[in-house]
Amino acid sequence: MKKAAFIDRDGTILSNDDFLLSLDDYDPVPRSFEGIRLLVDKGYYPVVITNQSGVARGYYDEIFVEQVREQLKKDFEEVGIYDFAHYYCPHHPEVGEFPYQRICDCRKPKPGMLQKAAKDHNLDLKNSILIGDSKVDYQVAVNFGVNFYLVGTGHGKETVKLANEEKNEFYRGYFETLYDVAESL
In order of start, what are the domains of the chain with their CATH numbers? Predict the structure, then answer.
């Protein structure tokens, strides 16, 4: 079994913290891919998990989500990572049309993406972590029972107050960037 580093995409790996609408706006957080390389060197299998309600909202389609995944793949390969997983939820419970407008088990903070990744990749959840910038990232880590590392990129500075007030057993602290999390492990 492999331990995983579940990593949020927007606001954690990429500086785009809302909707990435064009590959021209694709903007990695400085040193994020180097941080993921450090995680791999420390034995973590990288799993990108991302809500992509822009599909349900009609901002872009699933082909665009796959194009972004392909760009991520290129950036992973530039730092010597050739094996990673990528899961996304295109749904929204209130907007859009069928099949995208619906309540699902994959939209964070529900743990469906993590459960699927665990099954698909034989992951050791007891020793896995989740790195993210938002309240839903924090909540999915708690709901799934994995240690959560909050980054200050994206919505992290807004989320830190909630995480500090709740003092949940899974909250492992606030770090400026994904790279800083990786360096601390």
Answer: 3-184 (3.40.50.1000)
